[in-house]
TrEMBL record:
One annotated GO molecular function: carbohydrate binding
Cellular localisation: Cell envelope
Stretches assigned to the Periplasmic binding protein domain: 45-297
Protein name: D-ribose ABC transporter substrate-binding protein
Region (Disordered), start-end ranges: 24-43
Main localization of the protein described in the UniProt heading: other
Species per Swiss-Prot/TrEMBL record: Candidatus Brachybacterium merdavium
Length: 330
């Protein structure tokens, strides 16, 4: 059986989505040249991601840094935690450190455009992962999960578990992240095909487990007869499960997630979370470094700026195929 870091189908085109690790530097801060990469002189690749308290973003940063070092670069990983001011500070540091390339999971679809332009003005190529900015032609590439496809397969599973009827609520992600709206739109497109499913409430929980718990409590108090919760990511979904348990209301409520996080996988195994949608972060975190290396070494431009990587539905039927954090084996 071949082990793969979630080798998904890559749908190249406009990815209608825009979501790494805490500020943590590589132990090796020296320039390095590797046999399989490194350009003419190696150099530092700066990776700027979101918040390592979420295992998704930690995996993103860790795997990108490891791949950069494998290819003969030094790497540093910083976290903006959704703060564009912190993102700008990290960008300034990357420029002063003479980075040869920047990998960024942008903090804000609009607010991060200026940071990207600042890096480009310093003649440093930028490659975006996981989330997009609302301007094309700046980054060499924007690599994201196919959030529309992932939302559709998740919603289809959720509808089936709901038996196509009942009242439900939604937990919405971070509004400044295009991924949140794309997933919500994908849920709605599928669910509205079933007239006996009625959405009675929605709360923004900003991708956060604690907020997911608190907002789920608010929704439960307002709508005690719900039979389902659909969530834009796993952290919010797991927070909702905690709220349901505290209210002694978990039995019979269908909760669906999105990300494929380790805790979500355990929750599925424990019969709690109905499903999750695995994002291919393990794949595109490495792919983006390969693209940067190819550009630095050979001057090769990515064929398409925006590239979307398909997601995989994870249920109790295939959960044992998760062999490591965010890594799926067929």
């Amino acid at each position: 059986m071949d082990r793969r870091k979630f080798l998904s189908t890559i749908g190249v085109g406009a990815a209608a989505a825009g979501l790494a690790a805490c500020a943590s530097d590589s132990d090796d801060d020296t320039d390095a040249q590797g046999e399989s990469g490194g350009g003419d002189e190696g150099g530092l690749i700066t990776i700027i991601v979101n918040d390592p308290s979420n295992p998704y973003w930690k995996t993103e940063g860790d795997l990108a840094a490891a791949k950069a070092e494998e290819l003969g670069y030094s790497a540093t990983v910083g976290a903006h935690k959704g703060d564009t001011n912190e993102e700008n500070s990290l960008v300034d540091t990357a420029i002063s450190n003479q980075s040869v390339a920047m990998i960024m999971d942008p903090a804000d679809a609009d607010g991060s455009i200026g940071a990207v332009k600042k890096v480009l003005d310093a003649d440093i190529p930028v490659f975006l992962i996981n989330a997009e900015i609302n301007e094309s032609g700046l980054a060499k590439a924007q690599l994201v999960s196919n959030n529309a496809q992932g939302a559709a397969i998740g919603a289809e599973e959720w509808v089936s578990r709901m038996e196509e009827e009942g009242e439900y609520v939604e937990l919405f992600g971070l509004p400044s992240d295009n991924n949140a709206q794309t997933r919500s739109n994908g849920f709605e497109t599928t669910i509205t095909q079933y007239p006996d499913l009625e959405k009675v409430g929605e709360e923004v929980a900003n991708w956060d487990r604690t907020e997911g718990r608190d907002k789920a409590q608010t929704l439960l108090q307002a709508h005690p007869d719900i039979s389902g919760i659909i969530s834009g990511n796993d952290e919010m979904a797991l927070g909702a499960i905690a709220a349901l348990k505290e209210a002694d209301a978990f039995e019979g409520i269908v909760v669906g997630g999105f990300d494929g996080s380790p805790d979500a996988i355990e929750s599925i195994k424990n019969g709690e979370l109905a499903y999750t949608v695995l994002q291919p972060v393990a794949e595109f975190a490495e792919k983006v470094i390969e693209m940067a290396d190819d550009f630095l070494t050979n001057g090769t431009e990515p064929e398409e700026e925006k590239q979307a990587f398909d997601c995989i539905l994870i249920t109790e039927d295939n959960v044992d195929n998760m062999v490591d954090d965010f890594i799926y084996e067929e």
